[in-house]
Amino acid sequence: MSWYVRTQTGWGLRGILLGAFVVLIYRARLRAGSWNGISGSSEFWPLMVAGIILALVVLVFTVMTVTVDEKNIEIAMGLELIRKKVPVSEIASIVEVGIPWHSVGFKKVSGGWLYSVAVSGGVDIALKNGKRYIIGTDDPEGLLQAIRQRMSDGID
User: Fold this and answer.
1) Which of 59, 97, 106, 110 is most buried (CB neighbours < 10 A)?
2) Which has more confidence, 125 or 22?
3) Given pLDDT bands bounded at 50, 70 and 90, which one contains residue 63?
4) 38 vs 45, which has greater pLDDT?
5) What CATH number was assigned to the domain covering residues 2-6+67-155?
6) What residue ranges do the domains of the chain occupy?
7) Residue 156's pLDDT band (boundaries 50, 70, 90)?
8) CB atoms < 10 A from the CB of 127, how many?
């Protein structure tokens, strides 16, 4: 049974990627001379490859679901291609943090990993083994409360 489930969508990143795609199409159209000539232009295949890459980035990096159940915190990004389970029993400390504008996606940070799809609040989880996970969320208080509740239930 899941005690907490929250899905967040990174609308800002989606907008930026959509804007990049529109610029690519417009540039190809200008180079081809007309909309009908795009498929015959030298930029058609690079445009198609860039479009496919942008679509994959949108699918993987702009949606994240955080689930807290009896034993684990699970982070799943996009089509659940990127998943991480953090055992609640291994948590040493948790604090609420802010996620800066340059920390969208998943990336290596000092001592661990950051998972975020938008500029928002987050929860910094320090494990007993020294590893660290920062989880971005639009509901940091709710996530913090759910994790603390699971931690206190495990102590009893």
Assistant:
1) 106
2) 125
3) very high
4) 45
5) 2.30.29
6) 2-6+67-155, 10-60
7) very low
8) 17
Instruction: Write out the two tokens for 22.
Output: 């529109």
> How far is it, in rounded angstroms, from Cα 119 to Cα 9?
11
Question: Is the Cβ–Cβ distance between 90 and 126 less than 8 Å?
Answer: no
Over residues 74-103, mean pLDDT: 91
Provide DSSP, the chain.
Answer: -EEEEEEEE-HHHHHHHHHHHHHHHHHHHHHHSSSTTGGGSTTHHHHHHHHHHHHHHHHHHSEEEEEEESSEEEEEETTTTEEEEEEGGGEEEEEEEEPPTT--EEEEETTEEEEESSSSEEEEEEETTS-EEEEEES-HHHHHHHHHHHHHHHH-
What is the rounded CA–CA span in Å between residue 87 and residue 65?
A: 16
Within 10 angstroms of residue 7's Cβ, the number of other Cβ atoms is: 13
Q: Which of 14-18, 88-92, 141-145 has the lowest mean pLDDT?
A: 14-18
Question: How far apart, in whole angstroms, are the C-alpha atoms of residue 61 and residue 53?
Answer: 12
Q: Tell me which long-range contacts 79-86 makes (C-beta under 8 A, separation of at least 24).
A: 82/106, 82/115, 84/113, 84/115, 84/133, 86/125, 86/127, 86/133
